[in-house]
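Appendix C reproduces, verbatim, an entry submitted by the partner laboratory led by Prof. M.T., so that reviewers can inspect both the input and the predicted structure.
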Amino acid sequence: MSRHTALALAALVALGATACSSASAQTTEASPSPSQTILVEETYDDDYEKGTEAEELDQDETESSEVKDEDSADAEEEADVEEDDDADVVAILEFDELDEKLATMITDASTREPGYSGDTQTYYQIVLDNPALVDEHGNVNAAAFENHLGWISAVEAQRKAEREAAAAAAEQAQRAAQQAPTQQTQSQQAQKVPAPTNTGSQQSAPAPAPAPAPQASFSRQATESVARNVCGASVQWVDLGAYRLGEYQWGSTSMKINGYRQGMSQMHMNYVAAHECAHALQHRAFSGDFAAAQNRMNEIHGTSGTMGLEHNADCIAIALGYSPEPGRPGGYGCPAGGSAAAQSIISGQRP
């Protein structure tokens, strides 16, 4: 029961007691009728309930306002977090956004990269995909790429030296071939001169032995330079027998090359070093996972065992400009369609 209702009932009780104590209660001052009592009680209750409803409405509005304020604060906080996240994101630069020096280096390298013949934009994407040439944000690391340009220059210098060595060897062979007829003529003339005898019989002087054919030779230092420039490996010169020229242990930083085979040309020995280096590049591209590398190469070349890896190694060596000597037996060859996989391995990516 409300406070106002209690007061109204107390007044009614007091009014009834007064009426009962008077004997001559037949006056015009009659007690209120029941309907009036209810009306008074209802009037008091209505006022209280209206006041209560107003207070509750004010409280609801206050709470709603507080909720809105909290929502607004949360939204502002989320917006600040999003702005901070956006500030932490570093965009990958387009080629046209690079500074002039870096753009010039990349353009220069795209025309000199061993085994690459595409345009500069495609070359830039290949560089971005090479983890060894980008920074922590995924953009090109200028210092790392400058070192890569140095490697390209070293490869060019090595190839120039090889061409000069091959030209010198050809010139030497030509001189030897030109001298051979003169030696033969002198031998024939010597045969016509009668040799002195003690018995009166004539004997011809024995013909001199023919000059030995010039043997092809190679420089170990030049082959070591190929291994160092292509994959950073060192060379161990060993005797691998009559049929093996090179050997690479998966994950090693060195290779074995047969330095005791006779008649090997510089061109072919450099190819051997590049082929063994290709296995090191396979190791890098597949993060050391030999089974994954072997399965993928067999899938590409339709082979089994280690034959896929060997075909890919030949493709890589050829793509880098190191081909086997024409006509020399051995090698695995680069099947049609193997060049794309070779380029992926060279760039450090799985094909």
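The chain has three domains: 35-82, 100-176, 220-346. Additional entries are available on request from the coordinating office.
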